[in-house]
Amino acid sequence: MARVDITDIRRREILDASYKVFAEKGYHNAGMTDIAREMGVGHGTIYRYFSSKLDLVTAVVEELIARIAEVVAAEPPESIESLAEYRESLGRMGERFFSLLEENPEIHRWLFYEALSIDETVTVKINAAFDLFAGYTELYLRNGIERGFLRSDIHTRETSLAINAMLFEAARRLPMTERIDEDSRRVWSETIVGLVLIGVTASTHYRDASVHWAPVELHQGKRKGGGSDGRS
Fold first, then answer.
1. What gap in Å lies between CA 96 and CA 10, rounded to an integer?
2. Tens digit of pLDDT for each residue in 7-46?
3. Is residue 90 part of a domain?
4. How many C-beta atoms lie closer than 10 Å to residue 116's C-beta?
5. Which of 50, 71, 116, 190 could serve as 96's disulfide partner, Cβ 3.0–4.6 Å?
6. For 61-115, what is each residue's pLDDT tens digit?
7. What is the distance between the alpha carbons of residues 167 and 192, in angstroms, rounded to a whole number?
């Protein structure tokens, strides 16, 4: 039987309690005593594992960044061989991200807004995380370009940042609703995936892109001879 590391368990408990307290009170209004109270222990217990509140919040930020990175990097970009697979991969990524958001509804507000005002070292970590997430997204774009189903003239770096910005905006908006239901997730997923596909798909695969996402009404309009996709 594998040995249970009590230190790791206690550290995990502290991080979970800290995230909850920081999310509820804000970093500047929360103290180590609040976190200890949340755990039902003396505040000295916290200091056995973390030297200061800044040390603790840095660990919380790193943990949240790691969770998002798992969502973004769950599928190897080189495994995607077609536009259809790319579309499916985008959909799965969105589902994983929205599930993470549902489990941690404060993650976007806290990580991407409040945490940026804590300390320069924390800000550097978060900005580096944005670059990391964009790097993952850019790998998918470069793979699609190499395989011929994505446009070769797109600016991959800027496009990857724009794609991620749409996803993070969904993360900001969804928690504003009374609850994150399936319809809300579906609408955001379809919107983001649709915009991405139409924006980056190679002209030789444009029809495939519209078939994979466009609403039924759009296809009906095309069959009736109305409207144009604007591309040759």
1. 27
2. 788 888 999 999 889 888 888 999 999 999 999 988 888 9
3. yes
4. 12
5. 71
6. 998 888 888 888 888 999 999 988 998 998 888 888 888 877 877 777 777 778 8
7. 7
Residues 4 and 116 in one domain: no
The H or E element containing residue 155 is none
Q: What are the structure tokens assigned to 209, written together?
A: 């892109």
Q: Which domain holds residue 176?
A: 60-223
Cα 67 from Cα 60, distance rounded (Å): 11
Sole residue written with tokens 């599930």 = 99
**In terms of domains, do 88 and 153 share one?**
yes
Q: 22-42: b or e for each residue (b if 16 or more CB lie within 10 Å)? A: bbeeebeebebebbbebbeee
Place of tokens 């504003």: 176
Any domain includes 73 = yes
Q: pTM for the full model?
A: 0.75
